[in-house]
Specification:
single chain; 464 residues; alpha+beta; Neutral Protease, domain 2; Pdz3 Domain; 3 domains; 6-stranded antiparallel sheet; 18 strands; binds zinc ion
Length: 464
Amino acid sequence: DRSDGTYAGFDQQHAHLTLPATLCYAQGLEGRAAEVKFELPAGWKAATQLRPLGEDRTTFAAPNLQYLLDSPVVLGSQQLLHTWQDGGRTFEMATYYSGSTTEVEAFVKKTQQVVREAAGVFGGEYPAFDYGRYTFLGDYLPEATGDGMEHRNSTSLTSPLPLREEGALRNLGTVSHEFFHAYNTERLRSKGLEPFDFQRVNMSDALWFGEGFTQYYGELMLRRAGAYDDEQFLDKVSQWVNVRVNSPGARYASAVEMSRQAGFVDAGVSIDPTNRTNTYLSYYYQGAGIALALDLQLRQRYRTSLDKYMQALWQEYGKPQTPSFAPAKPYTLPDLQRVLGVVAKDTAFAGTFFRRYVYGHDTPRFAENLALAGLAVVPTKALAAALPRQVEFTEDGRCLLSRNTTLGSGLYKAGIDRGDEIMMLDGVKITDLATLEGVMRKHTPADLVPVRVRNRAGVERTTQ
Ligand SMILES: [Zn+2]
């Protein structure tokens, strides 16, 4: 009962199937071709990247297990199918949507523009889709879980947001990101992800590139397609700068090390409490920040661009694919570094860049790089202290810290942590949110105030 990019969801109108969550397979027979037949209720249709056998599109073939399990399938009675040709390829968008057909048509038009921008990044060419066709599987229904998942010749797009106004723009952002993955990650692919292991986690050193650079381009393509204006795009730039500059985690682990945590953070969570607030930074945003800094440096110092870098990587590592539909030359980090040296015509620059920002903990020099693009990085004033958003009140009026305190914050410096109780603040007994907010209003974030705390072991003390 979960329609998204990882699981399987069934209801009376439709089914959204991620095949690893749907099918069993026999170990040892992974190389065999497979055939799947869906026995559908009357009027139901199927959409998938699998190869259809016959006109009725209920029976499909896959050359091997990897391709079969890489192929999400959407089944249902109210499928809208839009098909178009571009650059010698066939694209189709199968949508399930409870709103108007006009909204779907407008969304398909915007999708077509974004798709062309992706080709533009890679020198105007589309990937050689395995059966000449790429399929967008759009499940825009209230019961869907917001998600996007890339595949070789399709993407699973699930969202409860409508295809209008802000919802349409956010859904288009997912389209943009996921279609970029048809190049970056599906074909231009990290060696750590190959072959995909259905028994245990594949660990990759390069998700800052696979996801992070895709995050950067997902947003940039929306600007290039005219879906964002400058201000909307620069909001994203600010976000990337903010998370990197303010993240305590990035001081302790490199982009490579953050990538290796994917198995624990990307929907792979467990029940044990962690200190990720202080030790982790998403490789999506960390990688987007690296892409931004690199794009600016390539433009300013080397009269080239990140597009040219992506094109060079695409030609060497992305285009070559095996007859059984797998990347023939998955890349390693030294490969990425070497090609950067070639594109910049400066191997020393590539070495330094990787040593500092990929393997190392250095913060990209955003202010310096953005200044040359006419943009200033200006710290904003803290508007209010965050304490009221970090506590919970029990029924008997105890004020408990509900989240990890952030390294460098006032709470952290005072040695106050999750689970501790704030008894008095600035001489006032704290029993409810209104009282706490009343005390907070009398102070600015820079003030020192006495605080009486009881830690989770029951020991009381006064600090400030
Ligand atoms: Zn992604």
